[in-house]
């Protein structure tokens, strides 16, 4: 082993142990504050039937009541066990997944502690199905964004503009859905505006070799300001263009009746099913086709790819535009689950989607797993506010973004991006 490889291994081991310590701190905190801090007679109830479904409601499942102290004790011990296992074994893979799982368990222990009876909260139960449905909407948007990032960065172009593509897709999608009452046209419009933004990014990055990060940030800032201006000039005086339509759910017979998983996976909008299709299509295209081989070659060694006849610039243009179109559809999907367009209401989800892509090691499957973890974290942080947790609303809402910063900074595991990611390519 060379000196460089030896140094890298030492740094990696040290980082894994730091991650394990962080996980252990969360576990011990949950044990002392949430488990021991709950009265021995307190209990928390879990419901499994969403209240917003009627005709396609799942088969009824009774309420599960758990001792709050015991439930939090078990979850805290699982967190501590994962921390010890990570510290001792120092696994080469799955460290970030362990950290994300501990983060979700931490929020869950906090939720159980907050919803206990007797307790200070007016809400004495946790509707698990409703919680998963709500988090699935956030996860869906993050998956669209992270898939967009995978498409772009696998070809060597950093797409910081995902947030802007979300905003553009949501704005155009709201206008088209309100005027046509058809979300198919809204999705087409979102894909077109997202693709157009992707083309602008590709044009400056590939034609003029501009810094991709700066171009992406400028696009996000421009679209955020432009959407606010158009909201005042168009949507405010003409509210018929922003009526707040919600995409209807398409229940799959029988499967949608399965308790818990049925409403979450098989009674969703068309955007959710489109997301599932895109996951499979992009995974297959990137790793099982000649096109995917060209994309990965361009993202790793563009000059070597050019020597065998691959048009590097063309491949990057196609991928960045397609990635932008996917993010634009994600913006429409967000609007379709939230209602009326509001300026800046994507709340940085585009940046969290980028973090999910990094968390998932630039692979569609990994990005999906990371998006699920981030989606749960985002939704749980907002849900906890209704339980009157004695922690500031703003502190709770910071939690997902703190995880995002940790991922992007490499604090919970260093991963290798495609070698030519963000590197300008110039013809000889």
Summarize the structure.
With 428 residues, the chain is mainly alpha-helical. The protein has helices spanning 3-35, 68-89, 95-114, 128-154, 162-180, 183-207, 212-235, 261-265, 270-288, 290-300, 302-307, 312-338, 349-359, 364-383, 393-408, and strands at 43-47, 64-67, 125-127, 249-251, 267-269. It is globular and about 75 Å long.
List the helices and strands and how they pair.
Layout lengths: L2 H33 L7 E5 L16 E4 H22 L5 H20 L10 E3 H27 L7 H19 L2 H25 L4 H24 L13 E3 L9 H5 L1 E3 H19 L1 H11 L1 H6 L4 H27 L10 H11 L4 H20 L9 H16 L20
Helix pairs in contact: 1-2, 1-3, 2-3, 3-14, 4-9, 4-12, 4-13, 4-14, 5-6, 5-7, 5-12, 5-13, 6-7, 6-12, 9-10, 13-14, 13-15, 14-15
Describe this protein's structure.
The chain is mainly alpha-helical and 428 residues long. It has a domain of 246 residues: Orthogonal Bundle (ABC transporter involved in vitamin B12 uptake, BtuC), CATH 1.10.3470. Helix content is 67%, strand content 4%. The chain has 15 helices and five strands. A three-stranded mixed β-sheet has the order 2-1-3. A two-stranded antiparallel sheet has the order 4-5. Helix 4 packs across helix 14. The model has no long low-confidence stretch (mean pLDDT 88).
